[in-house]
Specification:
six-stranded mixed β-sheet; alpha/beta
Amino acid sequence: MNIISLENVSKNYGFKPLFEGVTLGLDEKDKIGIIGANGSGKSTLLKVIAGLEEPDTGRVVRAKGKSLAFLAQNPQFDDSLTVLETIFASSGGVMRTILEYETACHDLAAGNDSPKLLERVAELQHELEMNGGWEIETNARTVLSQLAINDTSALMGTLSGGQRKRVALAHELIFKPDILILDEPTNHLDADTIEWLEAYLARYTGVLLLVTHDRYFLDRVTDRIFEVDRGEVQSFAGNYAYYLEKKAEQEELRAVEGHKREQLIKKELAWLRRGAKARTRKSKHRIEAAHTLMAQPKEQAKGEVDIAIGSKRLGSKVIEINGVSRSYGDNVLIDDLTYLVKRDDRIGIIGANGSGKTTLLDMITGRVAPSSGSIEIGQTVHIGYYDQESRALNDEQRVIDYIRDVAEYVTTVDGTQITAGKMLEKFLFSPAAQYAVIGNLSGGERRRLYLLRILMGSPNVLLLDEPTNDLDIPTLIALEEYLDDFAGALIVVSHDRYFLDRTVESIFRFEPGGHVREYAGDFSAYMERRQSEEAERKEREAAQAAAAAPSTPAAQKPKSNKLSFKELREFEAIEQRIAETEKRLPEIDAELAASASDAGRVHELFVEQQMLNERLEADLERWAELAERHEI
């Protein structure tokens, strides 16, 4: 059953038609990924489906009574609201009840145990019990924890762009809508959080529609792909790997058909030039057919980014990092880092947000000074720094002038010199688009333009800070191919696991306390090593626990995975305690409702309830552990 239908939908922006005649249906269990070049209309298609923009032609039909949540690329907020208010207050009903409950609990934890507050807490608990809000409240705590949203009292105006995006994502996930639409949800998330989000969305039971550049994420989460290409939207029934397979088959078929058509046209032209011996009905029909064939418009070539820019020669001394540390107050980001960057290094930098990754790049480029230590740059080094914020962009400047500021001509890999305009065409900026002001470009187009400007400087050391944010998949593929043959050193800060696997040969992980640890290999090799280390750690802890346990004759026997007599008694006791707790909790809710006027009793019940909930969570976890072995 279609929960959303698009019927002959079209959308244009001035001289630029995005898509035309789109007819599609979204099933109630679809998980759809939208892909296409920057500026092709992916985000606009999301907004049209969500009802945030109206199509120029056609219509979008949504099933009645279905809730919808939309995560924008750059969500807007009221900067005067707190994080907690932003997450819960924008929705009605149970979400507002949870907001008031969480606020009241925060006040209780701060020491305010007035009778009026205790009475209100009891009322809110009863409301949540009656309207099923506890499930949402539990989900909210999980989501906030996984997205590292810890200070819910912070004002939105004080947050960074990445933190604001996480808050917006938290709101949409907690809301649990029937239709969830996400525009670049993995931007500003680290690898661990992206893995959690993958698992979370795999359990999501509604319609999921998303735009993402993260190809691993796209492959693991979606079961259907919409490709926006040259004004059309084509549906592929499968994940990203399936799409690639079918797309390759399509391109091969198109090439064969195009070749056949060209050969037929050549044959017909030769026949026409010889001239028909007689104007028979048959010859007239063939002449008309030949003209019709030649009049058919050729298929518009698919635009592909062509990165063919050369680089300057690099000497033996590249970058020397000597005992560098950087702190902000008591917050130590980097502690005594020493490393010699070599000309053929391919380094990927990972770590939690705020751990110091960008700070290291800023110190290498001289934007930030180390607290101690030094960084020496070789005389032949020409650094190209592609930063997260695209700080060199001027919204008032025309695209062509922005590139001409670097050079009128650029030397390609094969030594050819081409104009700035031709280079822009290779980066998919048409002659008309080159005279647009930068402020009118889409987010992806801005990043592509910024990338071109960096590369036009012919760097021999590339520093890329989150290069995959807002770049489309075709541009990423072109960049990866360029980096394959890049004759210089590369340092990449990225959360994109696929990009790291394609481009780096060692991983630097930024850890708490300013420590930087190096792992040989790409990101997948790093993950294997981390998993191996975790398994080894658990084995050591188990061995230490076994060594510390009293030695008995029974302990010398081979270990059995079955429950011991003592564990069996514990298992039965936990089952009994869980049953008693689950019986007692509803009784407390009823007593809270009945004792609303007795502040002292409400406080006692509230404390007991909190204690029982914590114990129940621990008991359920231990019970599951024992039950798994009990069933073997």
